[in-house]
Amino acid sequence: MTATGAAPVDGYDLVIFDLDGVIYLIDRPIPGAVEAVGRLRAGGTSLAYATNNASRRATEVADLLTGMGVPADADEVLTSAAAAAAVLAERLAPGTPVLVVGAEALRAEVRAVGLVPVAEADEKPAAVVQGYGPRVGWVDLAEAAVAVRAGAAWVATNTDRTLPSPRGPLPGNGSLVAALRTALDRDPDVVVGKPQPGLFSTAAARVGAARPLVVGDRLDTDIEGARRAGMDSLLVLTGVSTAADLLAASPAVRPSYVARDLGGLFDPAAVVRLPDVGGTDPARDTSVDPAGADGWRLTGDGDRPRLSGAGATLTALRTLCAAAWSGRSVQGVRPDGDAARTALRELGLPTD
């Protein structure tokens, strides 16, 4: 549970949600998401949605959410597509051609800021903007490569390697950026979306929030972006990042809290506050003792430490994080007893 016994949402004046892997998977709501958002709205908490997915405009995202039973307004939605178009508009004169690699939503955002979306390098674009689109193919990447080699600036909406789906992780925009990076032997000039803090800071500024909470499923985008923006964060285990990823997390991508799902926003027993090992925030609980924390003990040295005791599965994860983040190996941790075996299994960690 949290250090004070209170739910994380208490005391925050804005909750900023990632979408894919947090609210929905592709086009299916994640169990409990509709109820969680409805409860926040009923309580008067300001909401925002910040997504790296550049395949939908804000109005389309709002319509999708509303159709799932999550009423949303377009001005609550921030997309990497709109952010990328804004960056281009700051750098280029109106009417400048921009080669768009991505979905129609990205082309529409480029058009909306007064630039001209094109599809071929022969149209001499001043920039290439690359975002996720389910129909992006070799021809699109080839045109982008030619344009960048001819001097066009290269702007990526995001570099997420994967995106979550009901069938498991699928290639994201970062995988397509990697293909172009390999062909060009260089990185994009600008990456706009998370983990850059812009989407989060814009969301907070829109409503004048003083204490926002970011909720995401990815350590390398949502959580790192929150830390860069100076905001607390909650990692939910309904999308990309796993318990194993959390144990291996560097300080730059460690969340304030972890929960299985959005129920952790309200139920103190369904969330834990993670230690700020080696951190400088006096408000963060740093008192976790891996030798006997929250009913769990981690004993033994070397490559195969042992987890014993009993308690909530998430507090076992907190104990393991405290050890791992303090420099102690938890690789191949073995269960000592049925309770530990069950906890490790529920966390998706090896049990033998």
TrEMBL record:
It comes from the Bacteria. One of its GO terms (molecular function) is hydrolase activity. Keywords: Hydrolase. InterPro entries: GNAT-like, HAD-like_sf, HAD-SF_hydro_IIA, HAD_sf. Residues 294-349 form the GCN5-related N-acetyltransferase-like domain. NCBIfam families: HAD-SF-IIA. This is HAD-IIA family hydrolase. It comes from Micromonospora zhanjiangensis.
